[in-house]
Amino acid sequence: MKRVSQYVALVAYVVFLAFPLLWLLSTALKTPQEMALTEPTWIPREPTLANFTDAFGEQDLVGAAARSLVVALFASVITVVISLPASYAMARYRGLVNKIAIGWVLVSQVFPFILIIIPLFMILRDLDLVNTLPGLVVVHVTFTLPFALWMLQGYVRAVPPELEEAASVDGASRLRSIVSVVAPLLAPGVVATLLFSFISSWNEFMFALVILQDPDVMTLPLTLVRFTGPEGVARLGPLAAASLMATIPSLIFFAIIQRRLKSGLMAGAVKG
Amino acid sequence: MRIKSALAAAAVLTLAAACGGGGGESSSSPGAPVKLDFLSLAWQKESVAANKQIVDEWNKANPGIQVTYVQGSWDNVNDQLVTQFAGGTAPDVIHNDSPALAGFASDGYLLDLGAKLPAELKSDIPQTAWDTVTFDGGKGEQGVYGVPFLQESQVIIANKKLLDDSGVRVPAAGDPWTWDEFSAAAKKMTKGGTFGVAWPMKSPVNKTLNLALNFGGTFFQTAGGKTTVKVGPEEREVLQRIHDQLYKDKSADPAALGQGTADPLPAFYKGKFALLPTGVYLRQQVAEQAPDGFEWVTLPAPKGTSAQQGAVSQTLSIAQESEHPDEAMKFISFFLNGANQAKLAKGDWLLPTSQTAAADPAMTTKENGWDVATASAKDLVVAPFLKVNGFDEWKSKVATPALQEYFADKITLDQAATKLVEDGNKVLERYQR
């Protein structure tokens, strides 16, 4: 009975999570008339691909998705590469500098980004990075890094120092124990951070809007917004079709790396 | 492994290629064409197509001045422009609406077009439209900071069957209902679970302020160089009449009250109410979505002591920092000639400011209510709030919540008026120090 209720709860949760995606699919296949019914239908009465034709015919969705993918991949990998050693230092070394760094990471999360967008834009302009994808990668890394550091730091703290001490007793240097002992145990944390950074970058709109101006470098969120008008009025059909396509790359990315997103690697690691 | 390497290489190449993708630059090498960036906010399918077609025609006919079409978004354009103006990378030609121009003009970001406007373009657009783009440029002098090209008026979209069945007089362009007739018609159409009218009031300010001009309500007064809010008998008239339809006559559908502009349409098609006062552009959605066999007509907005409505304009401006303002002006003149304005108005289902465009058969056909919509343009005058410094904050922080509470019958008209005036004046005062 307990197992049945667990399955029911699980199915309910999956339906809850899948609802927006299914609704998006349903909307993408509807005619404008069916979208305006007072009693919405789940399964379109007269399914149509016209919304997909319009979306792909009017906008360069494939090119925009490719650019978003490149930006998100670079931003997430660079974020992890920087935050991994930094989070180790933050977790393992105690000192004034460390406390200030942690405080700064927290404070940085409080700033509304709209406050810093103009100075940031000026800096990028001086570096000749406005209207370029590397410029956007730099910005995404900068803004994802504090939270990524905070996330990874928690994972590093969860690795018992005793494991490193044991490696040290066996003759391993500090670097060796980090590379061979700590790093493998941080895999789930690295994957979670990678996912967080990827999704943040993939979805990011405001910085991209300000930094990218040339149609040839625009990312997916900037392309999707072209189906919306003033005061919340939107072309729902093409928007749903384009949004549906926009979720696919991140779903694939998640499917590829979610296998490594498991915990419990350290269970019993320091039992006497 | 090979696939991973190939993907990585492709990514690096793409990123590297993008490094050189700087846009917005103006060519300065001799013989090279002048390059202009045109930020457009068109979003409807037909409108985007019309914009692209006109830009293509220009580029073919003018190899020496090449325009890059850049699509923006209404909801974010001002955040985008603030940053790009400050950073010196704004597009040369900018599509926006007239309320946004005042701030950018007084900050010195927009070029005064007064001396550059070709006579033909200037005379084709009536002075009332030019008034919507004439602002203080920050040095105490009035300047023209955009070319107005599309305007929105209020009309009533009606369910033809319910309208005909009610037996009320059907208003026509030039012979609209008075507000009394409108209220009586809405009452007559209210029966058997059907309401006469629906007022979606999620964003009540612009609609009520524009209609308030029917009774001379301006909501703002300026004396001694100081602008304050006023809510006298003229301003209260339309507010009270809408409130009466909701709670006294009970002829307005209460379900629509909290909805956005387009939200009541499904209920409209279902026959839940007969009349929908709205902007002319909503006809596009009705034409596209209405179920087969559903008949609808466009009626003029009701009149009070006059049929005047407040209006703002969509505009094309030139950035002050543009390196090629003369070429940009030439492009605007072409883009907004009579024939092109008709295409743009048709694409966006709005009213052209060009008198040549307004005479185009596409703008005067009975189909989809174009005749009534275009005729309403003559009643448009500059919205009184257009030149009020601090209007946006008054609108979002004071007027929207106060009017929403009033139309939800949570406060009286006197209480709403007090909020609009007292809280409103505090807001405006900060902008006039």
Structure description:
The complex is a heterodimer of chains A (272) and B (433). With 272 residues, chain A is mostly helical. Chain A is built from 13 helices and no strands. Chain A has helices at 2-28, 32-35, 50-58, 61-92, 96-108, 113-126, 133-158, 161-169, 174-185, 187-203, 206-211, 220-224, 236-257. Chain A is globular and about 70 Å long. In chain A, 34% of the residues are buried. Chain B is of the alpha/beta class and 433 residues long. Chain B has two domains: 2-151 and 312-367, Periplasmic binding protein-like II (D-Maltodextrin-Binding Protein, domain 2); 154-311 and 389-431, D-Maltodextrin-Binding Protein, domain 2 (3-Layer(aba) Sandwich). Chain B has 19 helices and 16 strands. Chain B has helices at residues 2-19, 45-61, 77-87, 98-106, 119-124, 127-131, 160-166, 179-189, 205-212, 233-247, 265-269, 283-289, 325-335, 338-348, 355-358, 361-364, 370-375, 391-407, 413-431, and strands at residues 34-40, 65-71, 93-97, 134-136, 142-144, 147-151, 154-159, 195-197, 220-223, 226-229, 273-279, 296-300, 309-311, 313-318, 351-352, 380-382. Classes of the chains: A mainly alpha (272), B alpha/beta (433). At the A-B interface, helix 2, helix 4, helix 6, helix 7 and helix 11 of A face helix 1, strand 2, helix 3, helix 11 and helix 12 of B. Chain B: This is Carbohydrate ABC transporter substrate-binding protein (CUT1 family).
